[in-house]
Amino acid sequence: MDVMGDKATLFETGRFVHPSGRDEAGEVAEDAAEEVRQRLAAESGDAEAMSVLGAMLLRRGDLDGAEPHLRAATAAGDRAAANNLGVLLHQRGYADEAAGWWRIAAVAGSAAAAHALGRHHRERGDEPAAEYWLRQAAEQGHALGAYALADLLEHRGDAGAERWMRSAAERGHREAAYRLARALDRKAVPEGETGVDDGVVATEEAEQWYRQAAARGHRRAALHLGAILEKRGELKEAGRWYLTSAKDGEARAACALGFLLRDAGDTESAAVWWLRAAQEGDGNAANALGALHAERGEPQTAERWYRAAMDAGDDNGAYNLGLLCAEQGRTAQAEQWYRRAAYAGHREAANALAILLLQSGDPAGAEPWFSKAAEAGSVDAAFNLGILFAGRTEESVALRWYERAAAAGHTEAALQVGIARLRDGDEQEAERHLRCAAGRGSAEAAYRLATVLDARRPPEPAHELGESAHEKSECEEWYERAASQGHRRAQVRVGMLAAARGDVVEAARWYREAAEAGSRNGAFNLGLLLAREGSEPEAAVWWTRAADAGHGRAALRLALVYARRGELAEGQRWADRAVSLGPEEVAERAARLRDALRQELSA
To answer: How confident is the model at residue 270 (pLDDT cuts 50, 70, 90)?
Structure first.
């Protein structure tokens, strides 16, 4: 059993607690003088001096010199000497004889001896005796006794453990403070949810105990405290605690500090801490180094670190090796690494493997891996299963997977559920899912939501002179959001709404954006707007672009333009094009114009 506690607690005397501020030479000189004084008193038969001298020699490691003095003092009834004699004998390997002397000291009221005796019994598996003596020490205010008792009760699942852990923590025991904080966090976080291990949750009281333990040099407490502060956005203080913990040898803190520095833009310093953590066996840091070298275009170095992460037991290493091989076109190797990570339970690797198999024409092989990944919680895999079943026209099965992914926050899945509900006529459910997807940034969802709201909107009454200007409805706001994200149909619709309220400049801007992005309706409407403004030659340019993209009305407009200019052959050519493009109404008008131009050309 190791010697535990500070000198005053261990030897039950305050004589060894020295005031601060003395230099080392002065301390040594004073200790030597004190030893001489105690030795002279001991030689004259002073039992207390024998006890103190024995304790001094024990502290120095002089067991042979300490033992006779401690035995003499013990024989004279000094309980501190009995306790220290037990410590000495335990260090010599005579555990049973040590326990006998600890029992004598404990019965005489020594809390330190009761603690040591309790530890002795626990090591031998005698928990009732251990609990009895540890409780004796704890009830006398002995911090180590309270901690050891709490540890014993916690091991048994006894609810009384927290009381004694708190007692030890309040007396400055740093491990007790740390474990109390952990226990408080476990009580605060519902089963199955993420806790403070990931730096996510910490109660106010738990944070105080983490802080106390960290301030006393507990490196894991400093790590947890850093994670709590980082989550709260207090990055500067979080970095200080990560640094403290990392310097004390905590690899996870070095890794976390690296991520903090990377996010602050200091990748060079981040790499230094990741390297330190990786060399101490931290797989996450090795992965971070691999990603850093991959970004720098150093695939061989990246692969070396990914392999190191894998060797450290981090399945992300195999997954990242798969990604690296896939980027380099080494499909067979990518599949090999994805499989290794997937068999180890890595859900994103299972999803990546399934995608690889699907792309290589093996949907039957892909499906079980998508299912495994989805059941393990991969949202992307659930969405991909939806795509897989939709491709087989198994719409009901596809919808179930889309709904599962949408419930977990997958934007595209929410859009697909919204579209399916619209198709089924369930407009209320469709709107709910479209709102979710649109709110997460889906331009298509914003556009479809706008069309749903637009269809409900009653016709606007005619405005009288002097009435207030047009106020945008919700559906217009969604159209504009989709349009601002580059959605071409939304851009055309926003342009139409602007034109309807007489804002020609705004309408032209949106039509032009849509047309330049490839929208034939945008090009056609822009042509109409320009023609109304008297710019028919420019209008013809946009109608040509629309007609070349398959817009029948644009082709008819061009036929009319060339007919008016007297370019009958060109007009006939565009009329033929309009007939072939349709729709029916346009085709009929274009056919009549074509026939008229043909007659005029043959006259």
So the answer is: very high
401-421: average pLDDT: 96
Please give the pLDDT value at position 34: 85
Task: Report whether the peptide linkage leading into residue 190 is cis, meaning its omega lies within 30 degrees of zero.
Answer: no
Whose structure tokens read 């899912």?
A: 433
Q: How far apart are CA 214 and CA 235, in angstroms?
A: 17
**pLDDT at position 557 over 90:** yes
Distance, in Å, from the CA atom of 585 to the CA atom of 580, rounded to the nearest integer, reads 12
- Say which amino acid occupies 551: H
Whether the per-residue pLDDT at 468 is higher than 60: the answer is no
First to last CA, the chain: 120
- What percent of the chain lies above the pLDDT cut of 70? 90
Q: Which amino acid is at 114?
A: A
Distance of alpha carbon 2 from the chain centroid: 40
What is the C-alpha separation between 515 and 526, in angstroms, rounded? 8
Q: Which residues of 265-287 are buried (b: 16+ CB within 10 A; e: fewer)?
A: eebeebbebbbbbbebebbbbbb
Helix 161-170 crosses helix 127-139 at what angle (to 10 degrees)?
40
Mean pLDDT of 449-469: 67
CA–CA dist 253, 220 (Å, integer)? 8
Neighbours of 13 (CB within 10 A): 17
Is the pLDDT assigned to residue 24 strictly greater than 70? no
199 has pLDDT over 50: no
DSSP assignment, residue 16? G
Q: Pick 197 or 549 by higher pLDDT.
A: 549
Q: CB 555: neighbour CB atoms within 10 A? A: 27
Largest Cα–Cα distance of the chain, in whole Å?
Answer: 149
**DSSP-assigned states of every residue in 352-403:** HHHHHHHHTT-HHHHHHHHHHHHHTT-HHHHHHHHHHHHHTT-HHHHHHHHH
pLDDT given for residue 201 in this prediction:
54
- Phi, psi of 522, rounded to the nearest 5 degrees: -60, -45
Which residues in 164-194 are b (16+ Cβ under 10 Å) and which e?
A: bbbbbbebebbbbbbbbbbbbbeebbeeeee
Q: How long a stretch of residues is the chain? A: 603
Query: Residue 272 pLDDT > 70, yes or no?
Result: yes
Q: Say if residue 485 is exposed, middle or buried (CB neighbours under 10 Å; 0-12, 13-18, 19+).
A: middle
Structure tokens at 313: 């037991």
